[in-house]
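A quick aside before the break. I want you to see a complete sequence-to-structure record at least once, exactly as it would be stored in a machine-readable document. Don't worry about memorizing anything.
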Amino acid sequence: MAKTRYPDLPANVVEVVKKAIVDTVGAAIAGSSAPMGRMAAEMVVDRGGKPESALWVHGDRLPASEAAFANAIMARCRELDDVHEGTPRLGIGHGGHVNVTIVPAALAAVEGLDHATGGPALIAAIAVGGDLIPRLRMAAGSAGRLGWEGPTVSPFGVVATAGKLLGFDEKTLASAMGAAYAHCAGNILSTGDGTWDVWLNAGVGARAGLTAVELARRGHQGARSPLLGSAGLYPLYFRGEYHEAALLSELGSSFESANVSIKPYPSCKGTHHAIYTTLELMRAHRIRAAEIARIAVRTCRYNLRLVVEDENGRPRPAPRSLNEAQFSMPFTVAVAAVKGGVFADLLNEDALGDPEILGMLGRISIEATAEKDELQKAEGYPPDDVDIHTVAGRVLRGCELYVKGHPRNPMSFDEVVEKFWKCVALSAKPLSHDKLDVFLGEVKALEGVTDVRGLVRLLG
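That is the input. The structure line, written in tokens, reads:
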């Protein structure tokens, strides 16, 4: 981590990092108006502190760790942030949410530096941190998906990113990693009961990593074996499961930062294949919601647990809140079928009581199959089979392998910018479009920017 430099990065990683910055900031702008985003922003502003880094959208200057905490929560709480898809290098499943902790922490850290830092250094730091988070989680194999998520191990990735920006040597980085382990937290429990902790995890991870970096900068001596010590991450958190190749193979040459999906829909990634395939089937066959008798989806057991069933294995009822809807495959597919799309302007509080959506919800069935379970062991989120049965008796079958935004079906920079502007429309406060145009232009040409400290000043 200490030795990796911008020239070491493959060209595709550089482009992915630039898109990740735009996408994460856009997600945070949209999240600024969500209840959890508003709450996080109000809390850190009320607490105040040393004016080191900016709270996006609002412009208040706060301690770097607190700005990163709130910015990460805003970026997470509309379910618009990117997700690691797994890697062809291993075939061992996905690594969870990544840049939602890395980008807020990186921009908060770089903003407080007393010297100019160029775009290449920022790109390299984000690439290294974004490589480490999914590697750590994938190295836990199946144990990494028993209830943990990417932000659980994100303090390590934030340390890698912020430590590089602060110029840490290997010894100081290692001490910061020990402190990062002391802060690891976060689980997926709230995805099943419609509460908000799953979004809190991102803020906790970003704040924890920056706290660990600050402690190490002051001389803290962190645990020497935070991963494989007797009470280290893998023995303690992951029940002793550890796959060395997932963590170490091709380290420094193959970057998991390149294997993230940019999400087109504001819902759990486990819902995306079913949404995308439903929309593609309806588009290809030119059918309307009124022509649909029922929709059958075949997915994996992991997705059932994540976005279909409650923690007791029973089908969840119709969502009572927006966050319940975001973690409901049946409901998001119903919104897609009725509205012809799924974004935050459609998946909103009004949708919860929409009689047409609720009627469609009652005509959707979802089951897990052994075939999809096998795929899930090797892939991040395996493609779902969707059958649309029409009133006229036709059966339309589809299985889109790669949702738009997947590394194998990527969004272009311009498409990410298009999503960004849709997010801006949801901002809690009006923002200068001229300043945001400058921000987008600087990120697009980031490798040529000589001082990135001014980037955040364009966001409030």
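Two observations worth writing down. The chain has a mean pLDDT of 95. The first strand starts at residue 53 and ends at 54. We'll return to this after the break.
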